[in-house]
Design a protein that fits this description.
With about 350 residues, the protein is an alpha+beta fold. About 40% of the residues lie in helices and about 25% in strands. The protein is built from 7 helices and 11 strands. The strands form 2 sheets. The protein has a 6-stranded antiparallel beta sheet with strand order 8-7-6-11-10-9, sandwiched between helices.
Length: about 350
Amino acid sequence: MAEDEVQKVEAGANVATRRALETMVAVGQRLTSMPDLDTLLDEIVVLIKARHEYSYVGIFLLDEAGPCIRRQVSTGETGYLAPSENSTSNSEPQGLIGWAIQNHQSAWVHDVLQDERNAGLDLSPDFHSELVLPLEVSNTLLGVLDLQSSTPEAFDYNDVMVFQSLAAQIAIAIQNAMIYTRERSRRLLAERLYNIGRALSQTLDLEKVLELILDNLGEIVPYDRGSVMLSNGTELEILAARGFPSGTELRKIRVGITDDNDLFWQIYRTQQPLLIPDVNQWPSWVFVKGLPPAHSWLGIPFIHSGEVIGQISLARETPTPYTQEDATLASAFAGQAGVAL
């Protein structure tokens, strides 16, 4: 290679490294001022993609209970044509992402079409390079940062070194944001339960108290449609609701308690919350005519004298599954609903 060509290559490498370092500084500035996790993740992927012009930048966070992806934030067009790695529901990751998660190691590939770890995945022919970096704090894997490029050999050694440092920085920020969110939830929970307790001591209006419970619950565990339902023989009837379309005749809505596969029977038998990530996969799920279709659902029992007498029903119309922490928080409100009933 001629000397001038060598100089051009070295100059290009220096520019790429400087750009990566500048990205690290820019991301660092955002990390110190954004405790909100969703906003934080959105800002990071957009900034990296804008500065480096990669085809795709994604952050995948893991479920605390296992190796499944519970949240994904991304920008750009992924090289994976199959939806397996790009689902927002709980799914076990595959390909380089799955390998990086299982091994807690970076995956750096110049040509993904030739990498056996992608066997079985439907890859775009325009997709060439990929760099997957673990987001890890104190040996705890929170997720991965995924960078994809349509350019062959888009990532060099310097890129890997800089982005590994950036991934460590992002992981700490994610952990801090999660701690902040949990602490904020606890404070809000205490405040909301105090408000409901005061209402219980000041009024005998059951519907008013139940609506207050649903309003305050929505501040802690977001939902699109919520209701307090009471068991009445072979049916569940709605006593209070929030988020239903205007004009919905709630008193006419009845949910039958049919057989052993019914979700209420499972709540009744176990006396535990029931989380359904996708109601389309639940055989006995009944879509109520006139209501927007639900996607994720959470049912929380309320118990009187050791028996389940009803439930709080929370539906999300988007594919955002409820977590076990959501169920724990909502159970505190179900306790208040049981007192009110």
